[in-house]
UniProtKB/TrEMBL annotation:
Lineage, top ranks: Bacteria, Pseudomonadati, Bacteroidota, Cytophagia, Cytophagales
Protein name: FecR domain-containing protein
Keywords: Membrane, Transmembrane, Transmembrane helix
Record carries keyword Transmembrane helix: yes
Every FecR protein domain range: 100-193
Origin superkingdom: Bacteria
Limits of the Protein FecR C-terminal domain: 235-298
Metal-binding among keywords: no
InterPro entries: FecR, FecR_C, Ferrdict_sens_TM
One GO MF term attached to the UniProt entry: sigma factor antagonist activity
Taxonomic source organism: Dawidia cretensis
Transmembrane regions listed in the UniProt entry: 69-87
Length: 309
């Protein structure tokens, strides 16, 4: 106590020191607002006031440690909760919800997307597209065949994923064919499209088609648009195509199961147009082209004969 009293007296007498300054201000604040600070205090007065000051300091500065911990924990929890809320909100805003459209064999339909693009789906097709296009692109997924009329938007490219082949456009019309076991094709009717297959890229304009098979991406021009887009009007055009490819396309489009027996050579190729025909008319025409006859076994037509004409 004598040391504290000495530092206080030294400060009052003009000997300024950090310790004395701190003790003086603590001593000064120990008085009530209505209580006068003595100008001339005796040692006994100072001792008495210092004791009261010490007790006051102890009462004011003692803070339970657990209280500090709880304050820190509460602050950390508040920050964590805010972070979770912001992350959840961001995730919710960017989450994409898809709509899926499926056509069975013999079925055809069309879809209007959220951006106004019009899509026609051929038979045996699965098509998946966002209910709402978010972000910087409009991306859809195709298994089967579809014709696209894309709403123009230079700020949001439209991308069709068909297996390993991607087709990117800004606003144009084109046909994409991607059936299992067959080459993937993109045929352009209007505008310009960019195609990418593995490490290969190409740009197509009206009257050009790209075909991806194995590790090759090839392209060429065409003039008969019905061959690639006529299916929308119920027309199938075949030009020198293998018999198995023709039978797969016809079976899928008309919703029938047509097969050939071993007596019909797989090397046969067909060139013909099928339009507005019944199931039986289609089978009869194929038999004529293959120099064959057909028998029906349940839901399956079996074609057999001597070979191609």
């Amino acid at each position: 106590m004598s040391s504290i009293r000495k530092k206080l007296k030294d400060f009052l007498s003009g000997k300024n020191s950090p310790e004395g300054h701190m003790i003086y201000h603590a001593w000064y604040k120990s008085f009530d607002d209505t209580q006068e600070v003595p100008d001339d205090a005796s040692p006994a007065d100072i001792d008495r006031e210092l004791v009261q000051m010490k007790n006051g300091i102890s009462r004011r500065t003692t803070v339970p440690l657990w209280t500090s911990y709880w304050k820190v924990a509460a602050a950390v929890l508040l920050i964590a909760v805010a972070g979770v809320v912001l992350y959840t909100q961001k995730t919710f805003d960017t989450e994409v919800h898809y709509a899926e459209y499926v056509t069975a064999h013999g079925e055809h339909t069309d879809v209007i997307l959220a951006d106004g693009s019009h899509i026609w789906l051929n038979a045996g097709t699965k098509f998946r597209a966002p209910q709402t296009f978010k972000g910087d692109t409009r991306e859809v997924y195709l298994e089967g065949e579809a014709f696209f009329e894309i709403a123009h938007n230079p700020k949001k490219p439209f991308i069709v994923h068909a297996g390993e082949l991607t087709t990117t456009v800004l606003g144009t019309s084109f046909n994409v064919r991607h059936y299992t076991g067959q080459p993937t094709e993109v045929a352009v009717v209007t505008g310009r499209v960019a195609v990418q297959y593995q490490q290969n890229t190409d740009t197509l304009t009206r009257g050009q088609i790209a075909m991806a098979t194995k590790d090759i991406l090839g392209s060429w021009t065409f003039t008969d648009f019905d061959r690639y887009t006529g299916w929308r009007q119920g027309k199938l055009v075949f030009e020198d195509q293998p018999v198995q490819d023709v039978l797969q396309t016809v079976s899928r489009f008309y919703g029938v199961d047509i097969r050939v027996k071993d007596t019909v050579s797989g090397a046969c190729r067909i060139s013909t147009t099928l339009e507005s025909m019944t199931e039986k008319e289609v089978v009869d025409l194929l038999c004529l082209l293959l120099n064959a006859t057909a028998t029906r076994d349940g839901h399956v037509y079996w074609i057999s004969g001597s070979g191609c004409n």
